[in-house]
Amino acid sequence: MILELDCGNSFIKWRVIHAADATIVGGGIVDSDQALVDAVGALASLRLAGCRVVSVRSEDETAAICALIGQAFAVTARVAEPAQEMAGVRNGYEDYQRLGMDRWLAALGAFHLAQRACLVIDLGTAAKADFISADGEHLGGYICPGMPLMRSQLRTHTRRIRYDDASAERALSSLAPGRSTVEAVERGCVLMLQGFARTQLEQARALWGDDFTVFLTGGDAPLVREAAPQARVVPDLVFVGLAMACPLD
Ligand SMILES: Nc1ncnc2c1ncn2[C@@H]1O[C@H](COP(=O)(O)OP(=O)(O)O)[C@@H](O)[C@H]1O
Ligand SMILES: CC(C)(COP(=O)(O)O)[C@@H](O)C(=O)NCCC(=O)O
Ligand SMILES: [K+]
């Protein structure tokens, strides 16, 4: 079995797959290193032969997670590294090492699955869009604040926007104009995300007509589903790229 980790700025997504056929043994999303060890350790009949990691955290934080995994499960974690070119995709950044590894792996995964031009929209702490042309050229992309950042900016930098998580969840039962602070903020931020997604789709259409595949991933992907009805929702897109960048055995 192989343990796979996607360490984002807010959460660690994890899954355990069988090495032979990549079938999924278990997986989840946790908010701390210790919660990760507890969740993976709770899997029945766990037999890890390896671990691969993608991280957008600092080198120290990433090393700490790898060390903890080594101690808890006696496997060496292999961390995905930037590349100028891989699996037919060419990194479009002037300095390829600066492109977020989650974006790079999602681009690899998308191009592998679609085998044609792709737009990847990844909605996590940040909202990201990346464009890969039919010949594998990564054309670059966009980074904006995602739902958690938009929401926390408003809560932090205004005096009268205050609400709890439970009412935030309730507020998203509709996107009608808000009649309370929580509705106005939560629905407004979702409309911003949807606007982001629609604008990226327009760009892709201008570049490629109808000849492209849209991928939607990240924890907040469901919030823009209706703004991108043609999108393939692939929650584990980064893991698809991670397996390509870090083959084990
Ligand atoms: N089961 C879940 N656990 C935690 N967050 C979730 C879950 N489902 C959706 N989310 C939302 O996903 C977002 C985080 O997305 P994610 O892609 O994990 O971000 P990052 O990679 O930046 O850590 C948050 O806005 C959070 O509310
Ligand atoms: C843009 C990001 C902060 C997104 O992080 P996430 O929302 O996945 O937590 C990450 O991809 C990153 O640190 N990128 C480096 C900067 C760049 O891609 O240009
Ligand atoms: K991420």
From TrEMBL:
Its EC number is 2.7.1.33. Keywords: ATP-binding, Coenzyme A biosynthesis, Cytoplasm, Kinase, Metal-binding, Nucleotide-binding, Potassium, Transferase. ATP binds at residues 6-13, 125. Homodimer. Substrate binds at residues 93, 100-103, 181. InterPro entries: Type_III_PanK. Coiled coil: none annotated. It comes from Pseudomonas fakonensis. The keyword Transferase applies. It is an enzyme of class 2 (transferase). GO terms for molecular function: pantothenate kinase activity. The active site is at residue 102. This is Type III pantothenate kinase. The gene is coaX. It is found in: Cytoplasm. Signal peptide: none annotated. A monovalent cation. Ammonium or potassium. It comes from the Bacteria. K(+) binds at residue 122. Its main location: cytoplasm. Pathway: Cofactor biosynthesis; coenzyme A biosynthesis; CoA from (R)-pantothenate: step 1/5. Its cofactor is NH4(+); K(+). Belongs to the type III pantothenate kinase family.
